[in-house]
Amino acid sequence: AQKITQTQPGMFVQEKEAVTLDCTYDTSDQSYGLFWYKQPSSGEMIFLIYQGSYDEQNATEGRYSLNFQKARKSANLVISASQLGDSAMYFCAMRPTGFQKLVFGTGTRLLVSP
Amino acid sequence: KAGVTQTPRYLIKTRGQQVTLSCSPISGHRSVSWYQQTPGQGLQFLFEYFSETQRNKGNFPGRFSGRQFSNSRSEMNVSTLELGDSALYLCASSFVKLAGGTGELFFGEGSRLTVL
Predict the structure, then answer these.
(1) For testing the chain A interface, which of B9, B102, B113 should be mutated: the one with the most A CBs within 10 Å?
(2) Which one of B35, B104, B112 has the shortest CB-CB distance to A50?
(3) Phi/psi of residue A85, nearest 5 degrees
(4) Does B88 sit within 8 Å of A91, measured CB to CB?
């Protein structure tokens, strides 16, 4: 069974600073995908970034990058130059290849202050 | 390109009633999955449909059911509602890649159900 652990219930960062949100996972599968989603108070889950287990390079999408350390089973999200609009819940999730079922972590609430 | 559309966005029901939620996936996406989000249990997978067939089901009672139509639109139904069914129900669609990669899942804004 897959499991995602996010140990930071809340994080605070000042605008324009970088922040790292932690995510560790547990799986016996060799092939899987790792995702990060942002959920503002409106409820919608917004896709941020994806990393495949066989991808050798860390994924990047604009200000978001995923620090993938396969041996440590970690997939931390790095947000560079935080903005006020980044304040939201952030979820790390995993999905084995071939299945459309996501296993989510408990989330980290990020608050960006001016 | 339109995103995932869920209706209704908000609804209030009483215990014992039943509810049907609708999800229209992104055009071209044939896989639709449903998730329940509650403060206590977090995000939990309900089921997934692909080409009108349920491919995967989470650990929920039989009161929770779903279906998918030929146009990929999906509905989920909860019968005999209980207070604990109050939650945000999220639908996700994806274009399933048959070879290589897993494909991103895109979510709708959710249907917020309150059971009184």
Answers:
(1) B102
(2) B104
(3) -70, -5
(4) no
- Alpha helices by DSSP H, listed for A2-114, are none
The one-letter code for the residue type at B65 is S
Whole-angstrom Cα distance, residue B87 to residue B89? 6
Token couple for A37: 């989603």
Residue range A37-88, pLDDT digits in tens: 999 998 889 999 999 888 889 999 999 999 999 999 999 999 999 999 999 9
Q: How far apart are CA B72 and CA B64, in angstroms?
A: 19
Characterise B101 by phi-psi region: left (phi > 0), alpha (psi -120 to 50), beta (else): left
Q: List, in order, residues 6 or more apart from A71 with CB less than 8 Å away.
A: none
Reported for A6-9, long-range contacts at CB under 8 A and 24+ positions apart, including other chains, are A6/A91, A6/A92, A6/A105, A6/A106, A6/A107, A6/A108, A8/A108, A9/A106, A9/A108, A9/A109
